[in-house]
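Work Package 4 report. The design task specified in the project plan requires that, given a folded chain encoded as structure tokens, an amino acid be chosen for each position. We show below one input record used in the internal validation round.
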């Protein structure tokens, strides 16, 4: 029984089928919950139904029908539960309907009466609303106008500034419009138009300012000549002032000026500013010359620079300005083709260059970076090279020393002016040394003409002095001192000719002219002294020496003129030490200074004197040759005329008169000329005897020739020129004398016996000469039977002649071998 009770209390375990049904119910319950949910998507749920086990769809439909029937039973239960309430509500609603219609009529009537009563109020309210809207609109308009009026005023101000060409202020106004005013009212159309016009106005301002800059560049190009002239005049005035002050203070230096564009000199202060040395000097205000600022208006370049700076395009402006100035520099540096013909050509050239760089210096200091020191230095170096090349070329064309001197003065003031503005000019002063050489060359050419004219107009005779005053005039022009002549009474003659004091004066004038070039070169006295001495040496050793040499070689200059030239050169040579003193007095440089150059006048005049002496010897010989050509010997004459030939006597008389003129020459010169003439005469007579065209000579011709030689010996023994010792002059004819004695005495045995002995009687007779003359006489004897008496008296004589001829030939052959 208990066992049965126990077994009855325990539930039976569910079967497998029941468990499956429960799981299926749970699954479908979830599915239905998802389907009944409005928010969840149905696609996934439906897919799960169909993706399950087979017959899942059928079971789902079955479950769905079951669920629908369950819901229908629940709805039916709910409707049954609320049906009585619904009926009661409908009944109650029908009761209220009549009251609602009555109330509706009352409300409608009340509304009608209210509408009629509020029509006037509505109209007034609408009017009030409209007025409030107008007031709000007006306030808004005023507010907007207050914002727009400043914009319009600024734009109007901009237009006025553009009209009055106040471009920099206009750019500032544009900037304010863009950054401050227009952004406040940018929504309005007129502001947009303004904003669109502003870039165009900026471009117009740039174009106008660039046009002004071009006008400025053209202006300074036109006025650079005047600006340069002004700056150079200031430099000249300053240099004159400094020179005057230096002389008064005993200073020997030159202070470089610093010039400004206001026409005054300035000095630098430690902060780099310029201090006006002439400040407060109102008395000179009326005398001030025009300044560069008076001639050139620099405002366009300042304005254009500011405009481009504001527009952020400063670099473009700087590049354009520098490029244009470089082009103008090249134009300024291009000289005119005929610049070298006049001083004005050079002056205009220098004025333009100075004006150009004065303007650049002003722009450099008046602007910040438009031009830099490096740019101006580059321009100056380029210009300096071009200037030096131009001056070197054009100065070479100058043949007028006055023009070259003017050119030098222009270069100096040009260099001083630009040096005052800080430009290096050392190369210009180096160029002046080349110009100095050119100046010296032109001086030498000029003085060559002067010397030539002096020599052509000289009468080559001693200077006659009639009175003491005339003597003092000559001595004042030439340092002549001779105690013997000073003791002579007037009238008297000075040994030199008129050309000597003239040449001496001209040499001094040359030194003065050369000194003019050294002025203002800022050179020491020693350098000036050296330059003067070198140029004077060139004058003496080249120009004067060449003129003297040409004078001496001229065919119309005779012996008398040559003698006077020798005398003149002697006195000029003695005057060289006075020229040394003259230069020393000018330069105050002692001649004992180590590097002092000496004058070479002594050698110049010595060379000229030697050339004149040689020309005297040559002309004497030529004159002797002319007389010799007049000789007309009858070489076959039987006996002599008993007197010397006429041509020879004329020649001797000429020599006597000529040597009398030589009394003023130095003794050695006269002696040498006399000895040279006698030797040449002796040689010419010997050549006449031995002439190859002369085939026959008779004994009579020999005797006549001997008479002529005797006259020559007598002339030599008469001492035509004093100073010869013994028979020195006669030795010039010793060769002829021994030869003629040999033939006159017919002393062949002695000649042949003593030949070669130092004490031979016929030592000067050459065997070849004797043989040639003997053969000429031998040929004559054959035709004229000149030896007939010898054959009659002594036939051995003929044999002796033959023997002598043979022996002479053997001697000649021995000499040749």
């Amino acid at each position: 029984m208990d066992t049965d009770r126990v077994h009855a209390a325990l539930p039976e375990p569910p079967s497998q089928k029941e468990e499956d049904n429960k799981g299926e119910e749970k699954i479908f319950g979830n599915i239905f919950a998802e389907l009944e949910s409005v928010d969840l998507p149905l696609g996934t749920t439906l897919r799960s139904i169909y993706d399950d086990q087979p017959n899942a769809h059928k079971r789902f439909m079955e479950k769905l029908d079951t669920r629908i029937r369950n819901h229908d039973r629940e709805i039916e239960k709910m409707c049954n539960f609320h049906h009585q309430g619904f009926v009661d509500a409908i009944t109650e609603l029908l009761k209220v309907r009549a009251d609602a219609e009555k109330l509706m009529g009352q409300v409608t009537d009340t509304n009608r009466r209210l509408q009629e009563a509020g029509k006037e109020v509505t109209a007034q309210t609408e009017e009030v609303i409209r007025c409030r809207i107008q007031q709000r609109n007006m306030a808004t308009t005023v507010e907007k106008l207050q914002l727009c009026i400043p914009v319009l005023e600024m734009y109007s101000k901009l237009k006025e500034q553009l009209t009055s060409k106040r471009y920099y202020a206009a750019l500032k106004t544009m900037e304010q419009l863009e950054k401050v005013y227009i952004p406040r009212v940018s929504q309005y159309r007129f502001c947009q138009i303004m904003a669109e016009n502003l870039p165009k106005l900026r471009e117009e301002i740039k174009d106008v300012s660039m046009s002004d800059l071009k006008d400025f560049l053209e202006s300074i190009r036109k006025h650079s000549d005047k600006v340069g002239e002004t700056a150079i005049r200031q430099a000249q005035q300053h240099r004159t002032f400094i020179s005057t002050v230096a002389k008064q203070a005993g200073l020997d230096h030159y202070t470089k000026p610093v010039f400004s564009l206001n026409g005054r000199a300035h000095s630098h202060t430690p902060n780099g500013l310029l201090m006006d040395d002439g400040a407060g000097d109102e008395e000179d205000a009326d005398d001030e010359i025009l300044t560069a600022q008076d001639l050139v208006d620099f405002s366009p370049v300042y304005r254009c620079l500011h405009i481009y700076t504001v527009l952020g395009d400063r670099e473009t402006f700087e590049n354009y300005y520098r490029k244009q100035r470089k082009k103008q520099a090249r134009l300024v540096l291009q000289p005119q083709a005929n610049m070298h013909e006049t001083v004005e050509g050079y002056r205009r050239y220098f004025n333009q260059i100075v004006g150009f760089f004065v303007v650049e210096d002003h722009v450099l200091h008046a602007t910040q970076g438009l031009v830099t020191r490096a740019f101006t230095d580059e321009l100056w170096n380029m210009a300096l090279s071009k200037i030096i090349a131009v001056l070197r070329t054009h100065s070479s064309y100058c043949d007028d020393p006055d023009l070259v001197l003017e050119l030098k003065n222009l270069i100096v003031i040009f260099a001083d002016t630009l040096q005052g503005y800080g430009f290096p000019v050392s190369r210009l002063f180096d160029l002046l040394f080349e110009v100095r050489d050119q100046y010296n060359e032109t001086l030498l050419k000029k003085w060559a003409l002067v010397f030539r004219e002096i020599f052509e107009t000289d009468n080559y005779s001693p200077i006659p002095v009639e009175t003491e005053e005339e003597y003092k005039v000559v001595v004042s022009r030439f340092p002549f001192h001779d105690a013997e002549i000073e003791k002579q009474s007037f009238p008297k003659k000075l040994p030199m000719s008129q050309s000597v004091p003239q040449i001496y004066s001209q040499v001094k004038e040359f030194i003065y002219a050369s000194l003019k070039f050294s002025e203002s070169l800022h050179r020491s006295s020693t350098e000036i002294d050296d330059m003067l001495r070198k140029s004077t040496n060139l004058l003496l050793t080249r120009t004067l020496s060449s003129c003297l040499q040409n004078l001496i070689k001229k065919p119309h200059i005779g012996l008398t003129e040559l003698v006077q030239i020798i005398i003149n050169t002697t006195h000029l040579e003695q005057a060289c030490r006075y020229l040394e003193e003259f230069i020393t007095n000018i330069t105050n440089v002692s001649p004992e200074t180590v590097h002092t150059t000496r004058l070479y006048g002594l050698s110049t005049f010595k060379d000229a004197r030697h050339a004149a002496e040689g020309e005297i010897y040559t002309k004497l010989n030529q004159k002797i040759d002319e007389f010799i050509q007049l000789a007309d010997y009858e070489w076959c004459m039987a006996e002599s005329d008993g007197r010397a030939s006429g041509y020879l006597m004329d020649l001797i008389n000429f020599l006597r008169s000529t040597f009398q003129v030589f009394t003023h020459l130095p003794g050695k010169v006269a002696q040498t000329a006399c000895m040279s003439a006698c030797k040449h005469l002796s040689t010419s007579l010997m050549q006449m005897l031995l002439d190859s065209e002369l085939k026959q000579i008779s004994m009579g011709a020999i005797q006549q020739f001997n008479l002529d030689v005797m006259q020559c010996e007598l002339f030599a023994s008469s001492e035509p020129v004093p100073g010869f010792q013994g028979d020195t002059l006669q030795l010039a004819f010793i060769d002829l004398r021994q030869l003629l004695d040999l033939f006159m005495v017919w002393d062949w045995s002695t000649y042949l016996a003593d030949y070669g002995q130092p004490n031979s009687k016929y030592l000067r007779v050459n065997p070849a000469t004797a043989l040639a003359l003997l053969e000429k006489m031998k040929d004559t004897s054959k035709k004229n039977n000149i030896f007939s008496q010898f054959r009659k008296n002594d036939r051995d004589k003929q044999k002796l002649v033959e023997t002598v001829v043979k022996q002479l030939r053997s001697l000649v052959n021995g000499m040749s071998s």
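The longest strand covers residues 266-268. Validation will be extended to a larger panel in the next phase.
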